[in-house]
């Protein structure tokens, strides 16, 4: 989910064109690129490089797998699954960003593997199979891919000094054996990771978990804006360095692509971001697994609204 945050952070420098050119090359060179992230063969058509697939990876590795700090492979067959999945579309005016979350338990066709939960695609075939799965599910061409693992999530949260999160009521996660109390709390990396991972003990289960992830992302963007400042270049450098250490992107995203985004998205902030979730028909048990059945037709209609500038809640 943090490619967008990287772009937002760089754009907040508010510097002139020359300085932006230098900054995107300096920090862009530090961003880890993922080779061969995109699938071969026919793919949906796209109108411009404005659709991102952002993934949070569920890995039990003791060592980082994303960003320049990575000492383990991003993907090994059957080891990692995509725990968080978001499609992000940058508005035609480059002033907005619309996000559609795809639940990890969505039961979908996975090319070459039949049907399974969408998060299995990454486990079976890495970024390329995940991208191919989402493209065939949505009919959307994915232009860029970004990924962060648990280690990176914790590190980036700590780098901004924690993220304030407001809870409306108490909750308890029996799986993590952790209590969350109502009120506003500035969560550090470990606390935030537990918060966005909770689904057991929540009335809406996986859907409530997605709401937490979206809430956290909005708060994180706000914190990054606060940390990046012309008056405190040391804090700015520390922040951008933390981002580059934790995020990996596809190798088609050049420093020039980053620079273009910086210049176009310099005014984007958390209030310019909208969030929704792929439409769900029902939940059911399939082969002993809890699964969510998506309304694929409505999902495509929803995304068409995003592409045409009429995302959910804005009217037609």
> In one word, what is the shape?
globular
* Main β sheet profile: 7 strands, mixed
Q: How far is the N terminus from the C terminus?
A: 28 Å
Reading side by side through the largest sheet, how are the strands ordered?
A: 1-12-7-2-3-4-13
Q: N-to-C SSE series? A: HHEEEEEEHEHEEEEHHHEHEEEH
CATH superfamily: LCP protein
**Domain count:** 1
Q: What is the strand tally?
A: 15
Judging by the overall fold, what is the CATH architecture? Answer: 3-Layer(aba) Sandwich
Indicate the CATH topology. Aminopeptidase
Proportion of residues in β-strands: 15-25%
Structural class: alpha+beta
Mean pLDDT: 80
Give the proportion of residues in helices. Answer: 25-40%
| Poorly predicted tracts of residues | 1-16
The CATH C-level class name: Alpha Beta
Sequence-ordered SSE layout with sheet pairings:
Layout: H1 2-11, H2 17-28, E1 32-34, E2 51-58, E3 81-90, E4 97-101, E5 107-110, E6 114-117, H3 120-138, E7 144-149, H4 150-159, E8 163-167, E9 171-173, E10 178-180, E11 183-187, H5 189-197, H6 206-227, H7 233-246, E12 248-250, H8 255-264, E13 273-277, E14 280-286, E15 289-294, H9 296-307
Parallel strand pairs: 1-12, 2-7, 4-13
Antiparallel strand pairs: 2-3, 3-4, 5-6, 7-12, 8-11, 9-10, 14-15
Helix pairs in contact: 1-7, 1-8, 2-8, 4-5, 4-7, 5-6
């Amino acid at each position: 989910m943090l490619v967008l945050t990287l772009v937002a952070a760089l754009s907040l420098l508010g510097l002139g064109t020359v300085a932006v050119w230098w900054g995107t090359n300096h920090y862009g060179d530090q961003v880890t690129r993922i080779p061969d992230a995109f699938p071969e063969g026919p793919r949906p058509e796209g109108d411009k490089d404005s659709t991102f697939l952002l993934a949070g990876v569920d890995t039990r590795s003791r060592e980082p797998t994303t960003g320049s700090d990575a000492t383990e492979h991003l993907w090994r067959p059957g080891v990692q699954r995509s725990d968080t999945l978001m499609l992000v579309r940058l508005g035609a005016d480059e002033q907005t960003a619309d996000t559609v979350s795809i639940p990890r338990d969505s039961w979908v066709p996975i090319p070459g593997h039949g049907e399974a939960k969408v998060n299995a695609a990454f486990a079976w075939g890495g970024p390329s199979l995940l991208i191919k799965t989402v493209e065939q599910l949505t009919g959307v061409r994915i232009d860029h891919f970004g990924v962060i693992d648990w280690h990176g999530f914790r590190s980036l949260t700590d780098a901004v000094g924690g993220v304030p999160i407001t809870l409306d009521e108490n909750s308890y996660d029996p799986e993590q054996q952790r209590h969350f109390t109502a009120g506003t709390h500035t969560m550090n990396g470990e606390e935030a990771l537990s918060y966005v991972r909770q689904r057991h003990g929540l009335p809406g289960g996986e859907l409530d978990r997605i709401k937490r992830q979206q809430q956290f992302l909005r708060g994180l963007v706000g914190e990054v804006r606060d940390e990046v400042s012309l008056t405190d270049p040391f804090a700015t450098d520390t922040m951008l360095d933390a981002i580059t250490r934790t995020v990996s992107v596809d190798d088609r995203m050049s420093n020039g692509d980053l620079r273009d985004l910086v210049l176009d998205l310099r005014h984007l902030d958390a209030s310019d971001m909208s969030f929704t979730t792929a439409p769900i028909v029902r939940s059911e048990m399939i082969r002993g697994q809890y699964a969510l059945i998506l309304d694929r037709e409505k999902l495509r209609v929803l995304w068409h609204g995003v592409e045409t500038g009429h995302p959910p809640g804005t009217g037609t």
